[in-house]
Amino acid sequence: MSGAIWAIGEVAGGAPTRLTRELATLARALGDAAGRPAASVLVGPEALAAAPALAEHGPDVIAVQVDASDRPIAAVIAEHVATLVREREPAYLLLGFTDDGRDVAGILQALLEWGVLANSSGVGWAGTGPLAEMSVFGGRLLTRSQFSEDRGLVIVRPSAVAAETAPAPGRVEQVEVAPAADLPAVRIVDRITEASEVVSIEEATTIVAGGRGVGGPEGFGIVEELADVLGGAVGATRAVVDAGWIGYAHQIGQTGKSVKPQLYLAAGISGAIQHKVGMQTSGTIVAINRDPDAPIAEFADLMVVGDLFEILPRLSAAVRARRG
Ligand SMILES: Cc1cc2nc3c(=O)[nH]c(=O)nc-3n(C[C@H](O)[C@H](O)[C@H](O)COP(=O)(O)OP(=O)(O)OC[C@H]3O[C@@H](n4cnc5c(N)ncnc54)[C@H](O)[C@@H]3O)c2cc1C
Fold first, then answer.
1. Backbone angles phi, psi at 172, to 5 degrees
2. Ligand 1 mutation target, pool 207, 220, 237, most atoms within 8 A of CB
3. Residues 160/134, Cβ–Cβ less than 8 Å
């Protein structure tokens, strides 16, 4: 396994997250390109339950089944992965651009003293190491970076690759490892789930997103209604999150989430580059905007020019009528 490329995964509801399946696919592709072994690693109380589904993407899965009920999962993952890294000496770890993934990367960086390439929107292989593409300066510049040593951590944004199953699934190996370090004793005292996060925007196949054009927090009512009838999730721009109209969990873009639904319906969103980088790989982009020259017209598949307060309720009613 020495020199291997590992995908460090996350589990939600007993299954690998979409980003975790993307990372496993990426690890396999990089392993193939580099002629190096690849593996996925799952750590936590649902590691074993989620491992077979992850193995379908190719690399073998190393599953560390541990309790994490009263500790932040990122700390639990990092301290076990650090031990595994010392034992098996992989060269590169891929982590997801999520709250937990970034925490895991931070802890591993401190424990292993490895470098980090953060915020990668694409990862290829060049020479002897990964080549990470990152967008900087508000999306105005795309950089390509490599590690100066033959090891490192790469934080990968969602949708950098599409999750694909492999011709033959990998094996699942259950291992027991001791945590690498006694991390500061942060204990979880309470868990609060935001009701609005019931349909996660990262997993949604349909997203109805609202921008400043919705006019205020109450304007999100018609956005939520349409998302609801379409069975989708609600997205938002940073402008409206900063204004406090909706929670950060909904923010899409450079400083929010990256999404790749089949349908992205943008209502009252101008299409700034920092928003575009988080949703441009969506299947079909439909924009509703009263300004025909809004920047989003340049990359939307369909531009509906008009007032969203007229169009959204009529769309919701039409979808409902069609469903009977
Ligand atoms: C470092 C940095 C990071 C950033 N990160 C992000 C990020 O992650 N995500 C993000 O979204 N932004 C981000 N931004 C902000 C970004 O630059 C834009 O300011 C923001 O996306 C604009 O949001 P908006 O489209 O909602 O608002 P606006 O640009 O104000 O657009 C509102 C649109 O609504 C239309 N409109 C108004 N009324 C109606 C109506 N009744 N019917 C139909 N259309 C209507 C207008 O024509 C307009 O096009 C970032 C900026 C910086 C500098």
1. -105, 125
2. 237
3. no
The closest alpha carbon to 289, from 255, 272, 258, belongs to: 272
User: Given pLDDT bands bounded at 50, 70 and 90, which one contains residue 93?
Assistant: very high
Cα–Cα distance, 82 to 77 (Å, whole number): 9
Place of tokens 């190719």: 58
CATH 3.30.70.120 fits 195-323, yes or no: no
- Residue 137's pLDDT is what? 75
The pocket around ligand 1, CB under 6 angstroms, is made up of 138, 211-213, 237-240, 251-256, 268-270, 272, 274-275, 278, 288-291, 294, 307-309
Return the bridge partners of 155, or none. 95
The secondary structure element, H or E, covering residue 315 is helix 308-323
Taking the C-alpha atoms of residue 241 and residue 185, their distance in angstroms, rounded to an integer, is 32
| Residue with CA at minimum distance from ligand 1 atom 4 | 274
Environment class of 265 (CB within 10 Å of its CB; exposed 0-12, middle 13-18, buried 19+)? buried
Q: Where are the domains of the chain?
A: 5-174, 195-323
For ligand 1, mutation pick of 140, 157, 202, 212 (most atoms within 8 Å of CB)? 212
DSSP assignment, residue 108? Answer: H
| CATH fold match for the domains 5-174 and 195-323 | yes
Please tell me the CATH code under which domain 5-174 is placed. Answer: 3.40.50.620
Neighbours of 64 (CB within 10 A): 22
How confident is the model over 223-280, as pLDDT tens digits?
999 999 999 999 999 999 999 999 998 999 988 888 889 999 999 999 999 999 899 9
